[in-house]
Amino acid sequence: MKTGQQPEVHLNYQSLYKLNPQTARSAMLEVWSQTGNISKTALMFSTTRKVVQLAIKKHEDGNLADRSHGAITVHNRTEVKVEEKVIALKNSTKFGYRRVAKNLREKQDLNIKDSTVRNILKRARVKGLLKGEKLRSSNGKPVRFYDWYSAEPFEIIQTDLKVILDKKALPQEVYYHTQRYNLPLYQWTAECVNTRVRFLCYSYEKSFTNGLTFYLMIIAWLRAHNIRAELVFTVDWGEEFGGKSRQKITDLRKLLKPLGATVHQNHKGQSQENGFVERSHRTDDEEFYIPRLQTIKTNDQFFLESFNWVWYYNTKRGHTGEGMKDGTPYQKLQKQYYWIPKDICAFPPLLLDNISTTIGPW
């Protein structure tokens, strides 16, 4: 450099680009307008002539922002009408992607894969096209206290009480029919998270004594079918399962321990920790109570229908949940415990009030 000559200024275009692409191109164009030389401008910004030429072209087009890097033409893309059907079915039913795909294949005769539906819903979720979706935790991941999918059959049993007489779930005519014929008001549900095998009982009262009776019946049924695993019943904070009474929970655990079972209370307000059994209540409403309750007028008829429903759910109805592959709960159970007979799925739904009175008050 000669004496009195100004030193050359060198800028780093990449550093400016990372901060703001439009600002980086504006600065480059300002230098180019002063020098009138593409090569000198490229040298000053430690970049190539092609980058400068691109900035000039964008300036002529009137837009210095980056263009989308997505493909202009997407080959084998799903038709817009099909995507609309997928999104509409998801919004109207709240089904998971596997069940949405199954419904479209069976009822609308569409040849569509589960993975295709999953990708369509993923794009729709980003665009905000899905209604009423909520994340189950702050980072969007499901909250679990156990590794459910590595548990052996019946090691973890989600347990819950469902109010059958629910105005939000039942149509008005079904609701009043249930009242008129004095059918059972509460459904007690126990569901194995590994296989989805479910057991049901009913009652007119939601008492802790009925809850204790339900535990004992489930344990006796499983032990009678040679299930020797340590049983963990996961429950919410309802009074029928012990609630806030630490004394009841402590005494209940002492009682169940010799039977190889225990009770785990989920976190307060975290219904997703009992997600499988909570979701099954909706299936009860949609596939059993709403279509069948109006045909039932006596308790004997009610319990016969309930028994048929439990048998259908466990041995005939395909499930699209994680790891189920559209199989039945018994098929999932048989793959792991081939020696268990099918009659384990034939748990008799009974009226707990009639049984718990012989136990006496807790």
Automatic annotation (TrEMBL):
InterPro entries hit by this protein: Integrase_cat-core, RNaseH-like_sf, RNaseH_sf
Pfam families to which the protein is assigned, alphabetical: rve_3
A molecular-function term among this protein's GO annotations: nucleic acid binding
Residues in Integrase catalytic domain copies: 149-337
Any one of the GO BP annotations: DNA integration
Protein name per the record: Integrase catalytic domain-containing protein
Taxonomic placement: Bacteria, Candidatus Daviesiibacteriota
